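Backbone shapes recur. Consider a single case.
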Amino acid sequence: MSIDARRDASAGRRRSDDRTNVAARDAADPPGGARAWLVWGVAAAVYFLAMFHRNGMSAAALQAQERFDVGPALLSALPMVQLAVYVVLQVPSGVLADRLGPRRSLLIGLGVMAVGVILFAVAPEIRSAVAGRVLIGAGDALVFLNVIRIGALWFPRHQYALVSALTGLTGGIGQIVSVAPLSALLRGVGWEASFLGAGAVSVLIGLLVLLAVRDHPGGHAESAHAAPVSVLESVREALSTRGPQVGMAAHAVIMVPFGVLGILWGYPLLEQGYGLSPGLTGLLLTGAAVVPMGLVPFLARLTGSRPGLRKPLGLTLSWTISLAWLAVVVWPGGLPPLEVTGAVVVASAFGAVLAPSVSFDYARDGMPAHRTGVASGLVNMSGFTSITVGVVGAGVLLDLQGADASFQLAFVPMTAVSLLAAATLTLLLRGYPKRD
């Protein structure tokens, strides 16, 4: 047998052994407990801040348009470049998460984000602003995967859906803070002071990570630092496993519409599309995100203890959100009444905060706990690729329409992607085996 053949056979046996032993690994799950929640809480604070940085462009969109003297299409380049960097770095970030561990990865991410937001704060023109958003996207790419990885390394398997949901909930709160309060800060203390303050907070949270976060609980170091496999093999393993495939499809629809609104187009939709004031717009977007939050931990705990509920929950969220936005974009005579669009936005927010408990819980099916980073990265890449299509597509279509721009037409690309992902999820879940 040739060397390459022996290597391939060895890799195949390793993948087979990993999948065969998943149940055995789960039986030796970490115990969780107060220390686990402390470590997760500090890491979740990093994600909270990352969401503030990521979604700040929504509240700052109109001010940025004036500050840098750009139109809608060029304005969309700011979050587009940030998201593109974030998406491209998901797999490398997953590999880094598996090899460096959460603590060092989070510290690197915080440092890069801090530099990026400071550059964005003082940027005199659009090119410098884009460079700042690139750095924010690069640092942000390292955050969520490592918070999720802490959930895999510190908590038992049946709590993973709950930890993932609470992580998403933390991000949702961060998104709220990046809307109304940031809008008020921008009006009150100005552009530079608002974003420089956010950079300083990044440094302070980095100190908390140094003090509190550890990669794994005592007695579980071996699984956390198992022998690494190649990047190509890690990607191939995740893509060939049904769980991550389902997670990718779910994330590409459930989190996307509210992601598009939160990252850039929520404020313009309500201010320009419906003529609302900035204060009322911020209040409505904040309320839309707050309303579903109370139910998220309950549903996540339920799906964690009863995995069979994941399928109906995922399909219900996917088709409800997709068809609701289809109704918005085909509503006769222009945008539907504000009450209708508001209900659709609330449904989208519910999906966004619950998405991690569905998508990333599926992504762990069939995967060993110590190699969840790449699978989670692929799931995240799927969702944010769809968001990028929605953000950029809306900006291009608004720019092409000129003064009489229609937000109905602008949201067509986002709606089309959501419908396609919902159909793909439906096909993948046919005959999907139940998790014990």
Observations:
- The radius of gyration is 21 Å.
- The CA atoms of residues 86 and 141 lie 5 Å apart.
- Residues 1-27 have pLDDT under 50 and may be disordered.
